[in-house]
């Protein structure tokens, strides 16, 4: 009888531990919805540099994207899956890694990168 009670206690502890571990792995979904101003841009061979023209990315909740650079505006689409962002502009698709910290967004891949501040 003691062995049965001990087995039940150990099994209960194991189930509880697994349940707690799953909860600690759950993350809040990242939302990049809003308007972001580019503060710097990264390109190979040049590294990070400030942006001359005011440049904005506006990510809409329906998956559309508006990129404004100076007086030029381009509309496209985006999809965010975990920390991977796929952007399509002018029939060209690029995938970026995403790092979001408070109101700072950084997207980058091997060819291009942007650091942005949220404006709206």
Summarize the structure.
The chain is α+β, with helices and mostly antiparallel strands and 120 residues long. It has one helix at 2-25, and strands spanning 34-43, 47-50, 55-59, 64-69, 72-81, 84-89, 92-101, 104-108, 113-118.
**Helix and strand composition category:** alpha+beta
> Whole-Å distance between the termini?
65 Å
Query: Going across the major beta sheet, what is the strand order?
Result: 1-3-4-5-6-7-8-9
Number of strands: 9
Structure characterization notes:
The protein is α+β, with helices and mostly antiparallel strands and 120 residues long. The protein is 20% helix and 52% strand. It is built from one helix and nine strands; from the N terminus they run αβββββββββ. The chain has one helix spanning 2-25; strands spanning 34-43, 47-50, 55-59, 64-69, 72-81, 84-89, 92-101, 104-108, 113-118. The chain has an eight-stranded antiparallel beta barrel.
């Amino acid at each position: 009888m003691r062995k049965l009670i001990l087995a039940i206690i150990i099994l209960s502890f194991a189930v509880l531990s697994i349940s707690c571990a799953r909860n600690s792995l759950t993350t809040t979904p990242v939302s990049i919805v809003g308007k972001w101003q580019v503060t710097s841009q990264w390109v190979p061979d040049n590294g990070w540099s400030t942006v001359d023209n005011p440049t904005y990315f506006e990510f809409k909740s329906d998956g559309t994207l508006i990129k404004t650079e100076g007086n030029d505006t381009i509309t496209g689409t985006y999809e965010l899956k975990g920390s991977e962002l796929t952007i399509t502009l002018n029939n060209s698709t690029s995938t970026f890694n995403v790092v979001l910290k408070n109101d700072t967004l950084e997207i980058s891949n091997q060819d291009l990168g942007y650091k942005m501040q949220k404006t709206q």
